[in-house]
Amino acid sequence: MFNKEETIEEIKLARRREWVFIILSGVFLGSLTLLNVLGVSRFIDLSEYFGIGSNSDIRFIVAVGVLPYPITFLCTDIISEIFGKKRANMLVWAGLILNLWVILVLWFGGWLEAPDSLLSNGKLPIDIIDGQVVVPHGYSFYEIRTLTFGATFASMIAYIIAQFVDVRIFHYFKKKTRGRFLWLRNNVSTITSQMIDSIAVILVTHYYADGIPIKSGEDVYSVLIMFILSSYLFKLFFAIIDTIPIYIAVKYIRRFLKIDDELPF
């Protein structure tokens, strides 16, 4: 017999599940866009927070775009655990399309009424008139545009590899452990994928976009290794401490969505 009340409850529950998926996806995609636009526009020296003296040759420096990056892996791991591998992979592909959209908008915005003074490297020259620095109109946009092109291209390569590795390793360990030890698959998948991401982003940013600040006379390989390790250790730190949040999030989201296992889609 048709039960109208039960049907309404099922519809409400299905809508609730979609809302949770959309919010997690929104945080993921928003963080992804933010890290690509900010990218390598600024580098932050965190050495003093890790007990490294100012006179040391070893520095702990990360690009500002790295700051929201750990959140993306947290979101994909929660989605993998609750909504399943297919939905997690779907989100990864959506992120790739978003990267292409960011590049298209920036390219089109710079192409429309491009200034005659635009240089071949995509930047605007700064004029000095009567000893005063004159910044041309649109200078900030073209600076961000150039940096974002390089950062987005680098992150696209790293992103595709790292996110799919993250999802694959997560579900490999989930299958092997029969759904137990969430802390193990969360940490192993994130730690591995973020090492791949850190290496790819730094190398592509340097060799393709020339976006890594290397001073004259510095050994290029030493500096690149320093940036890779800084980026990776930053991500590793948050990968370790997000174990507790992911357990809490999964527990309460499962209860809120009334599910015992991952959703079949």
Task: Determine Rg (CA atoms, Å).
Answer: 22 Å
Q: How much helix is in the residues?
A: 55-70%
Structural class: mainly alpha
> What is the mean predicted local confidence, pLDDT?
79
Q: Overview of this structure, please?
A:
This protein is mainly alpha-helical and 265 residues long. The chain has one domain.
Key terms:
7 helices; two-stranded antiparallel sheet; 265 residues; single chain; 4 strands; mainly alpha; globular
Fold topology:
Elements: H1 4-38, E1 43-45, E2 61-63, H2 69-83, H3 85-111, E3 127-129, E4 132-134, H4 139-176, H5 182-207, H6 220-241, H7 243-257
Antiparallel strand pairs: 1-2, 3-4
Outline:
This protein has 265 residues and is mainly alpha-helical.
